[in-house]
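Q: My labmate handed me this sequence with no annotations at all. I'd like to see what the chain might look like in three dimensions before we decide whether it's worth expressing. Could you predict it?
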Amino acid sequence: MRSALLLPFGQSQSFFKVFLTAVSVSSLMLASCSPQEISSQEKSETSSSAVEVQQSSPTTETAQKQPDVVYVPTPPEVVDKMLEVAKVTKNDVLYDLGSGDGRIPITAAKKFGTRGVGIDIDSERIKEANENAKKAGVTDKVTFRQEDLFTTDFSEATVVTLYLLPELNVKLRPLLFKQLKPGTRIVSHAFDMGDWKPEKTLQVDGRTIYYWTIPAKSTTNPQGNLSS
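A: Here is what I predict for the chain of 228 residues:
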């Protein structure tokens, strides 16, 4: 048998109070420490997880190149005059560089039966142009390609239309001279081509249209500038 420790009533009561006090203090210490310890641990684990996620995420993604020009549609009356000055026919292949909603190739196809190609870097504009071609019933004559103007091949064009910016026209000019055949017609809405003087300049409702033709190769240098 185990022996029991017997204390007088007063001493037992005092002992009991001391015991309860010790237990309470211990509980308070545990209560005050445990959340901090858990919180620190959770923070450590969360930080580690965040680092792991960051390290496992791709650091290099190919972003779509943004357009160099804010899209502004060419008014219909200007489109008509551009096609008129270029004397577009059903035998032509028209390339619209920066084609937007596709209105120039679509109009040429509807009015003259011209085969057209629109080049634009903006996927939304390409989608819109294809929808417009479908509505106009000319999907058999026009196509639209999401490409960079400065890397695309437009060498089959007999007519090129533009509505860009002056610096882009000048930058594009050597490619036009390099790729296009002599006699190819070029029509630009609003902006010229630097020191390459246009053969015709027209005004339509306050808007300017410039017209050139690609000269014989012997009259140009490799940079696409006219020889003196």
